[in-house]
Batch of 4 targets.
Target 1
Amino acid sequence: MTLWSDLAAAFPSLERLPEAARPHVVELIPSARGTEQSLCVVFDEREALRMTAPEVPEFILSLTAHRYAVDLDSLGTGAERYYVDEIFDPEVALRGWICAGGVVVEEKTYRRAGPGRLLIDRRDANGAWLSRDEPECVGSDVDWSGEPQVLEAARAALAAGEILGFLVLKKEGRSQSYLRIYGVVP
């Protein structure tokens, strides 16, 4: 797969993904947070997350979701990023956690705020608010703030039929963008 090798060149962490977890990859989400870039992998199966991230807190794996995700580049850093979608919640689209050694340091709630818009609430491990209503929205290709070759790889993969599509998300008021590549066939 060309997309896989192109992204592995930009994100060597992708090569550390266990072979048994690869068939469960449904999305790849490169992120650009200021000058830092990382790659989040989304699975359709909780066991693929467990294989990939052995220190994932058990309560995350016990949640009912149809997608489980981990930022591969965050593993082992003391700021590991995990996500699950909320299937049955009409308001909450996604929950996320930043963990250190399997212990939650921060929790994020991504709330639906209209077509193509989310509002993000962040709390520390004690439940104290860190921020509320941080806006995130669907952008366009020009909003991608990461390496240009990552966007080009997504465009080429779409043209070659390797993926179903991609979209750019951006945080309003911050230098953060995400490239959500979906319909991935590893």
Target 2
Amino acid sequence: MQRIGMLIGNGLTIAACQHFSNKLKDYNTHHFFDWEVYTPGESDVLFLNRLPYLQKYLLYLESLNENWQDDFAKVKNIIKHINNNKNKEDPYILLTELQHFIAIAFSTFQQKFINCNLQNWYWTNWFLKHKDEIEFIISFNYDLVLENLLDYCNIDYQRIGVRNERSGKYIFKPHGSIDYEIIDQNNKKVYIHYPINEAITRNNLPVKSLAVNNLLKPRKEVDIVLPDEHSKQINYCWVKPGYDYFKFNKIKFTHFYMLGHSYSKCDRPEVDFILDHLNPDLALIILNPNPTEALISKVKNKFIFHIENMV
């Protein structure tokens, strides 16, 4: 019997958008600023109209008349701006607004995805076939496509570090998730309204998972690693246990699947940590038709590996 580990990237979500294009045609995950995202509690107001710092900066980027390849490039520019102005308050409000926009945008996407019939999707069949063999999944995605798949296949799971999840196969989401919310400390309630007038971000607090019907409500804090950003939360109280589990338990996988991860430079330190702690005698399957030379160089001297298409 196989003992399967997985590392999942944005390729799974892209595959979902392609397969369910009739329902998800308006959700290109590389152009999320173009999505119709409405303000929590104000269903007739576009969310960007309640995020003035982000809206202003996006207009500034458009005024540069650069050929922006995708919204990842815009986010990279925003991150650079924030890092160059660390001693000022405004950039951190911009960061907070950006994090909240991403969370609500992908929650909006999620509301569409949960209405898709997963029955005949390739990945549904794959997870049904291997449901008893999967032992550990690392997902770099904020969305809940993976979780919806597991629910459909009746695979119980718990996300490492999430206080109100206690049983099932281990899922580790080091870059955060759209249904994570910080837990109130010392019974002190925090209420968020839009526009945001105070930066609440990167506080390294415990998290819980939200119910599906709360995904489009305001968050107190959004702990996510932004697209094309190096993680600032590797040592967070709900992230570090996942890497420690991987490091110290030394799971003896027979197969490890890298599903739709681009091995981007910003993620490389974390992915390398994972690869470095895999046993070298497993079968590594790279599910990406065009893996980077950097990834091939990383794995070729340690693993027997082969490359497959996503389907």
Target 3
Amino acid sequence: MRNIMEAEFKKIFFLRFSKVYLLFTIGISLLIGFIFTVTTNVTQGVAITDLSVMEVVSANMLGVDLASILLIIFTALTISREFTAETIYTSLAAVPNRKRLFLGKYITFLLLSIVVSILMVALIYLTSQIILMANNMSLASLAEADIRQFVFGVLLMPVFYCLLSVAATILFKSSGGGITFPIVILAIPALLNMFPDTIQKVLLPLLPQSAIHSLSGTVGAESFETSGVFISISILLLWLVITSVIAILSFQKRDF
């Protein structure tokens, strides 16, 4: 497995495109979060000094939403390249066990997404502190439970959707499927808001975005998205396990 992962990392970082894209993802996320935060008087009609510390941090962390989408695209393009260039045959010749090859890719992108997510959230958090300091406001402290919970929940988002993209790309054998599937899952909660409460009450708690919102503490007690920590983590794991199992079964049976 270690050799497979080393090979996967080399495939990713051999191309200059990958390094530039990941740096761009982090940079644009910082910029977007910063713009959202310093323009609250325009976007929300409220001066930044009238916001709470949590609201400032939350506005800045909106950049992570964009980063999650960009990471989905990067993952899908990177994995699908093997199918379009037909280098998948070389990979399968080196690793005939398709389940093992899938797990190698999965763990590789898990580690990559964790590093990118931690780096990105840390930089955005630092930017939030600078913005708060510049406006003579209290600094955000990870000693406070609500801020610590929020940061943890935000960290999970890029990691989860990156892994969902890994499974979707291999399942559909294309970057289109690898991009479309996780983005549709990401967008469903917004669409469900147009439906009656009876439908929202049943479907919203089952969606990964609701679980992430619950874990980050950004939902109210009356929201249909609200669920306990154990249930939220279980929902995220179930989504990953089910999509991965389907992708592995498809990968094992398919002739390329």
Target 4
Amino acid sequence: MEKCVRSLYENRIFRVLTLLVLGIMAAISIAKGVSNAYRFSQDFQWDAAKALSLGINPYTVSLTGDAVPDDAAFQDYYAYYESIDAPQKMEANQFPSLLMLLLPYAFLAPGAARIAWIVTNLLCSAGIIWLLRRTFFARTDGYLFAVLSLLMLAGTPYRNQLGVGQHTLFSFFFFLLAVFLAQKKNGSIPAALCLAVSYFKYTLTAPLALYFVYKRKWKELILSVAVHVIATVGAAFWLHESVIDMILQPLKVSSALIAEGGMDLGALLNGSGAAFLLAALIMAGLFVIALRADENSDGMLISVLLLWSLIILYHRIYDFFPLILVAASFCEGDATPDQKGNRAMVCFYALLVLFMFFIMRLLGEERYVWIMAACLYYTFTIILTVLLIIQHRGTTNQGN
């Protein structure tokens, strides 16, 4: 059986057909995503950024439901969504230091801003593929990397991410750019700035930032946080609010979404405060793992961090497109020294990706479908985490 699979994998006709089919699927997915983004992009938060640019507290508007300012741009923005039967209200769930990143778009008309954000996300998509190839997949077979990249673009999460105008593509790109720059001589400050920008989707990239703990890149981490401290003080001055409010108010807005995720802890625990406590405990555990992981565990560690990041805080299906990064655990064979066990994990991973990228689309995002996805996802995540811990212990024992 293994020889047949290997023979098929190495067959040139099979490879060409695979790339052709996936390429067509990816092209259709991108076209549909762009079409949806041009019409919707409802998660873009242009209105919150616009309010911030005018010195209006977007968190107060979001929390109290106050009427938006009597400004023609706002009226055009909300009238457009009402005309397509998708009424919007301001939902500023980003910290002000992050919302500032959207200020360049706030000076554009709503329609032009949507187009500019689509272009930004497409450029970030290309950048993600380029950076993955030069970081975690630098030694991966070119054909396999092409398959993984096309799978990402063809999958439902990427298409939805693009269509709703979410911020994960933007954030993931800057995280990978930070990793890439941190490898360069004199790249500490540029890497820190990129890492600071990547926190735009902190529910994904804050756990991923523990990769810099693993690499002992303390300067980059400290500077990336310092950028937001300074920006938060600046936002407080601009909006005539206290610094504490600039931290608490966004959290109050975002906490309203805690129970509305797919299979994250908040959704599973029905919005209970215990979800935050459990998330904090998991983050503490991941910090210890990152601090003690074997120095040759790049692919495995980043995979574990990514897997946990997508379930410890609020996430919907559109945030799961970075799952292709988990293949870095297997491409260099560092998942486990047991080859049979490694093959089993590869098959498990392939099933997980196919389920999240395509099968969920066919079945629909019903509750039972998310339960099936959670069973697969949590089992795989726990197993891979245990394998990483075992690998560290094995390396430690060999060293002794």
